[in-house]
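Task: encode each sequence below as structure tokens.

Item 1
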Amino acid sequence: MKTRVIGLGNPILTDDGAGIHAARSVVKLLPPDSEVDVIELSVGGLALMEAMVGYERVILLDALYAPIGNSGVVVRFSAGELPETLNSASAHDVNLPTALRLGRDLGAMLPENADIQVVGVYAKDVLTFSETLTPLVAAAIPEMAAHVIRLLEAKR
């Protein structure tokens, strides 16, 4: 099954870089002969959808808006369950569910929503300029990477 893992975020905005840090951890855990394609992106909407074209399965790694007191908690859900996030929509783009629907309507070969899994971590700070994650989010990176490895092994 052609699979892509996408680490999302901005690595210079504290916890917003969690998806990118997690993707780098996944690369270290994959066997050298792995056919899983791991990339890092700082985009959403249409550009993110375009990065999924031609793949049967996608795993997104990202930081999520945290309810008070939940920083560092790792969650997993499918694209069909995608909650609203700080960057899910803008005046210059569309949110991911809309982008996926548009791509499919235009004939793009995209995974089904159930085959697009999101592994997220609730962030504490996504607004401060820093390349360092907050302690609770940094501690959750190995758990995010382990979730990805389990998802990959489950679909073999």
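Item 2
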Amino acid sequence: MRNKKTMFITQAAIIAAMYAALTYAQNFLLPGTTSMAVQFRASEALNVLALFTPAAIPGLTLGCVVSNLYNIGSGLPLDMIFGSLATLGSAICMYLLRKACVNGYPLTAMLMPAIWNGVIVGWEIEYFFIEGKFEPIGFLTQGGFVALGELAVMFTLGTGLFYAIKKHNIDKQLKNNRTPG
């Protein structure tokens, strides 16, 4: 598996599978915690992988699409589209901001999932799921709840994962396979 394209595809597939599996397992054990406005989706901590490999961008996006397939049965087919677009945007931004650190911590990058999901999913909830016309205050409320859940995940599980990856030099292994050849 020395071929960089093969490694890139393999990493993306593994990340997608981990994201989907974690989301499904959490939803099985704690129903609703992965799809409500205020959620603590543990799989979102995997966004940290975008700091170390660009393969995380398609991997996280595909994992989000697959995990949101469950939501179609719950009457939330739009979440598969908009939630996945939010994940794509946040993963790209995290990768681009990976070197912007405060005392070695990628603070700006860690905020990206909260910002992207807060805006996109907050808009989705207010526009499609709240009866009546679009209300800016409702959008800010819904977006704030979504962002709050994302912040909680990123600053607890995400931060722990970030430091575990650095401590065990996994970041070096991921960086050796950075771009497809």
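Check on item 2: The chain has one domain: 4-175. The chain is about 70% helix and 0% strand.
End of task.
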